[in-house]
Amino acid sequence: MKADPFNRNCGSRQVIDRIGDRWSVLIVLALAHGEQRYGELAQRIDGVSQKMLTQTLRGLERDGIVTRTVHASVPPRVDYALTDLGRSLLDLVAGMEAWATTHLGEVEAARARYDAR
């Protein structure tokens, strides 16, 4: 069967759901410059709950986008990093970030016009 993200039963839709999720995008961007600890990610990504960060990291790890490395230390240290597959997403998510920051003013103006109707 050919991949068809418009088909709700196709695995490609699940992939799009994963990589298009706001927390996934922000995690990939946060890991763009190297591995980080859980606490560093939680601090960097304003507004993410512990539950959502954990859940998203597990999903990204399951999909092969992020690796989780546990270091034998006290207290235990856990680092997250992008895999090669995860790094292949960087152009896409960096493009989304660039578009959002470049066009923020236009989007805010459009929202204001819409809300004023």
Architecture in CATH?
Orthogonal Bundle
What is the number of domains?
Answer: 1
Total helical segments = 7
**CATH topological fold name:** Arc Repressor Mutant, subunit A
Largest sheet: 3 strands, antiparallel
Instruction: Compute the CA-based radius of gyration.
Output: 17 Å
Distance linking N and C termini: 46 Å
CATH class: Mainly Alpha
Helix/sheet category: mainly alpha
Strand order of the largest sheet: 1-3-2
User: What does the overall shape look like?
Assistant: globular
Q: What is the mean predicted local confidence, pLDDT?
A: 95
Tell me how many strands there are: 3
Please identify which CATH superfamily we are dealing with: Winged helix-like DNA-binding domain superfamily/Winged helix DNA-binding domain
SSE layout and pairing:
Blueprint: H1 11-20, H2 22-30, E1 36-37, H3 38-44, H4 50-62, E2 66-71, E3 77-82, H5 84-87, H6 90-102, H7 104-116
Antiparallel strand pairs: 1-3, 2-3
Please outline what is shown here.
It comes from Micromonospora rhizosphaerae. Helix content is 59%, strand content 12%.
Explain how this protein is built:
This protein is mostly helical and 117 residues long. It has one domain: Winged helix-like DNA-binding domain superfamily/Winged helix DNA-binding domain (Arc Repressor Mutant, subunit A, Orthogonal Bundle). It is 59% helix and 12% strand. The protein is built from seven helices and three strands, in the order H-H-E-H-H-E-E-H-H-H. Strands 1-3-2 form a three-stranded antiparallel β-sheet. A hairpin with a 5-residue loop joins strand 2 (66-71) and strand 3. The chain is globular, with a radius of gyration of 17 Å. The relative contact order is 0.13. The model has no long low-confidence stretch (mean pLDDT 95).
